[in-house]
Amino acid sequence: MTRASDIMHPGAECIREHETLAAAARIMRERHVGALPICGEDDKLLGIVTDRDIVLRCVAEGRDPARVTAGELAMGRPMTVEADEDTEQVLRVMEQYRVRRLPVINHPEHKLVGMISEADIARGMPQARVAEFVAAVCADEPPKVEALTAKAPEAEV
């Protein structure tokens, strides 16, 4: 069984909620990533900020990324998976909610231990499964509720 920890990018670094979007953009550039988890002072995961969020929800609205904080873009509780979660369940969650990046937490401490991105899936999963994933996440129709509860196909031996 392949687990989330087997395909994730370990060592995800949080941007603090009070740090600016300009700081987030610099960290993304330095780390060659397109998203950062947003954490509060207590290390609680508050959300995720993406490079696209910075452009669409800050710059395109005429706001100054040097003044807007990451916490201002944190909306709701982000979806997460546990490090020992089966990758088929990870893919179902990402497909169901059409998310391209997913924080991975350690159980029982609930600390951030990594992130799973589309690139991680492409490197860690069979090509046919990657194609199914991309089709589901990029589909034009609304996501189906059954995707989260569907049983994974049995592995062929």
Task: Kindly describe this structure.
- By secondary structure, the chain is an alpha/beta fold.
- Helix content is 38%, strand content 19%.
- It contains eight helices and seven strands; from the N terminus they run H-E-E-H-E-E-H-H-E-H-E-E-H-H-H.
- Strands 1-7-6-5 form a four-stranded mixed sheet.
- The protein is globular and about 45 Å long.
Entry summary:
The protein has helices at 4-7, 21-31, 51-57, 70-73, 87-97, 118-124, 127-137, 146-149, and strands spanning 9-10, 15-16, 35-39, 45-50, 81-82, 101-106, 111-117. By secondary structure, the protein is of the alpha/beta class.
Features:
157 residues; alpha/beta; 4-stranded mixed beta sheet; 3-stranded mixed beta sheet; 7 strands; disordered C terminus
Instruction: Output the structural class.
Output: alpha/beta
Helix content: 25-40%
For the terminal residues, how far apart are their CA atoms? 13 Å
> What characterizes the major β-sheet?
4 strands, mixed
Number of strands: 7
Mean pLDDT: 86
Query: Over all CA atoms, what is the radius of gyration?
Result: 16 Å
Instruction: Output the number of helix runs.
Output: 8
Low-confidence stretches: 143-157
Fraction in beta strands? 15-25%
What is the molecular shape? globular
H-E order? HEEHEEHHEHEEHHH
Biggest β-sheet: strands ordered side by side in the sheet:
1-7-6-5
Give the helix/strand layout.
Blueprint lengths: L3 H4 L1 E2 L4 E2 L4 H11 L3 E5 L5 E6 H7 L12 H4 L7 E2 L4 H11 L3 E6 L4 E7 H7 L2 H11 L8 H4 L8
Parallel strand pairs: 2-3, 5-6
Antiparallel strand pairs: 1-7, 3-4, 6-7
Helix pairs in contact: 5-7
